[in-house]
């Protein structure tokens, strides 16, 4: 791909004639996609740290059998809010931050399509986060029904449950507005010559993810609204005593919940598909097949929701359908893994930190994928349902999966964001510690689950002690590793460091590397011509 913008080109003269907004007004009234992307990233980092503290409190309680520090009700509040904060407050906003920063740069757009709506979509998130976390101080504490908010437990909770419902509504509205903005931007604001099948894969994965968000977030909003009316307005959607059906909620929730899993990983696939070609110094192997595989995963995600519900008493025919449909998802996912490995094959590889996280992601995500195939088999799922085997599976997908993608993208693009190079030695320390401790934390959970350890229990039988102790130590060291990342890498890189060139990576391709580092406040006022 060639463009008629020279690397290192200065900002246009008219940009210099207008003072940029400064101080708090710049952030409160932000309409520039880079500023809003930065707000999303800082918000998600704060939520990641808050969710991490809750995770460490959970592991502290589980270090030994018996109730050590917290009552079971408080323990389950930690479990519930940890899940909600990490999913809706950390992972999703982080990927939206990447989208805001990189999509306009990658397609040659001056900004996102709807700048003020972009501002509103971010500023809905801090009040939602406050609602979630403030619930701990409400009467009865936060909701303790698990992040899935299943009735009848969620119908019996105190006011903290209502705060969680309102927070989910705000976060859902934010996601829908963000998705509309991304779709409109990609379809209408591409630079001349930037055909859809020439777009960077990151843009493709986000385009498909945005359609998923628009399709499933209203379903979650409907489900939690029905919970709210069951709780306060006398309806009986999910109350069996009034003729309702608690399992109906599970169908609605997982019709949202399973596409949500791919909402949290498809943009990560896009990041990995940018990083591996750059450090292999080769074009991405099978570009078109990657696009079609992403679309296939998104489509299949709508027909597999009930594999979360094999123990609810569904007919055998339905069990067979959902079992085979779930296994089918492994095919396009396998295409992606094959293409990443084929891209590296005989490439001129160098192992800078973004590439290390990308390769580490392929390994640990494959582990999570294989345990997912096992959970698709009905007889196995019935045995390990609601055990630590399931906890191990989805943490391998979301922590070792989504989080490693985010780290790879951070190290890849942070020179473009800040104009500074990070310290490579410190970054590699972060990678190796993350890789080791994420496996020490979550791999023993497979054995706990196979031995029958239920999830969401604050106490357990003595035979599970050793694996729980190992997991808790791994979690503490993994958490300290992320604190090291924040204080030894993120903050020093933001504040200063070696000056980054416009293109710090030899093999990197794309429009974002044709502008200076840091990217100027206004980019592509004159659309580049892509040849």
Automatic annotation (TrEMBL):
Gene Ontology molecular function, alphabetical: cytochrome-c oxidase activity; heme binding; metal ion binding; oxidoreductase activity
Domain Cytochrome oxidase subunit I profile: 27-531
Keyword presence, tRNA processing: no
Record-linked InterPro entries: Cyt_c_oxase-like_su1_dom, Cyt_c_oxase-like_su1_sf, Cyt_C_Oxase_1, Cyt_c_Oxase_su1_BS, Cyt_c_oxase_su1_dom, Cyt_c_oxidase_su1_bac
Entry's localization field: Cell membrane; Membrane
Domain of life (superkingdom): Bacteria
Reactions listed under catalytic activity: 4 Fe(II)-[cytochrome c] + O2 + 8 H(+)(in) = 4 Fe(III)-[cytochrome c] + 2 H2O + 4 H(+)(out)
Short name of any one Pfam family annotated for the protein: COX1
EC number annotated for this UniProt entry: 7.1.1.9
Membrane topology designation: Multi-pass membrane protein
Pathway connected to this protein: Energy metabolism; oxidative phosphorylation
Keyword Metal-binding: yes
PROSITE patterns reported for this sequence: COX1, COX1_CUB
Alphabetical UniProt keywords: Cell membrane, Copper, Electron transport, Heme, Iron, Membrane, Metal-binding, Oxidoreductase, Respiratory chain, Translocase, Transmembrane, Transmembrane helix, Transport
Function per UniProt: Cytochrome c oxidase is the component of the respiratory chain that catalyzes the reduction of oxygen to water. Subunits 1-3 form the functional core of the enzyme complex. CO I is the catalytic subunit of the enzyme. Electrons originating in cytochrome c are transferred via the copper A center of subunit 2 and heme A of subunit 1 to the bimetallic center formed by heme A3 and copper B.
Protein name: Cytochrome c oxidase subunit 1
Lineage, highest ranks first: Bacteria, Pseudomonadati, Pseudomonadota, Betaproteobacteria, Burkholderiales
Gene: ctaD
